[in-house]
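Attaching the record inline, Q. Sequence:
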Amino acid sequence: MRKIVLTIHLFLSLILGIFVVVTCTSGSLLMIEPDVERFVHPIGQQPTPGDVGVKVIQQQADAMNPNLKSDRIEWPAQDGFYHIHLTKEGGKDAGLVYADPGTGKVFGKVQQERREPFATIYNLHRYFLLTDVIGKQQAAYFVGFLGIGLLLILLTGIYLWWPGLRKWALGFRFIRNRGKLAYNMSLHKLVGIISIPVLLIITLTGVVNAYEKSIPVWFGFTAKDTIPASALQSKSKDQPMIGIENVVSLVEKSYPESTLTKIQLPLKPGQSIQVGLKEGFGASNSNNTTVYMDASTGDILYKTNPDLSINLYNTWRKGLHFATWGGEATKLIYFVFGMTPLLLMFTGIIMWQIKARARRRNAKKKTNEAIAA
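Structure, as predicted:
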């Protein structure tokens, strides 16, 4: 049985190794993208303590951009500034700007699209640069297939590593002074088994994300929560919209234990207001539920349930894969362990070369002995 598992492990590592390493390494680099972007493209300002309120923020944004309309406001998160989304007449996108929470001053522009090289790194990780060749969906499925291959490599690796319950501690032994083969083999096993728990989480959720629309259907669910049409339209379409400060007040009064993350104002007359909230402990650092509010009366039309199975599924499959559930420490852990397949590839190649040279020496020795005989 062990020989069969070893053959499967070596075969998959040989065939899929470079693809797996590229996918994992690119994913690790995406973990540090925000930190690199802040270093390479700094905002140049620090947020002022305090909060002047969302009404002042909206007024300042509208005053600074009289030909545009602020339709979405995102509360301060990682960079400490409000983000105000602006649109042109007719609902055409006009970008995002920053606002200082302490002074209300509006400045700059928030980068919406990924800069290079991270745009290419993302496409490499998510689609393996195959979207123009086989299409986006098929490219995502291909990466999901690589993830399944990595899962099999990890599981067979666990089987091959397992020393038994009584000798369990010996599996973590690191051999230094018994030659290159023993050194690299013990390093390969040690790094592999330590990284396997994190890699299993990353890989499993990566496979799920690759087939995100198909998996719920297989189990009889819809791919996302269905929002009733009545929640998207205000009942009083001809009445003026309530002030954004009233929206905040009504939401905080109705859901005092929730954290407000963003407000999406109507793009067209008659549409409802959408308020993003974060409730309880969630895998996402943004909202995990949305409140739909009548834009004229402030009545709550609908609220999504963060504990609904499909919503939990969508939140955690993203949060566990993108490390949005544990702060900067979790991202650092993901980055480090996501780079381990690169180290495992190097140690695996070194072991293969040492064994190959040994086989050639033995073959040459036998040939010489046969000639001498």
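The two ends are 39 Å apart (CA to CA). The mean pLDDT is 86.

More tomorrow.
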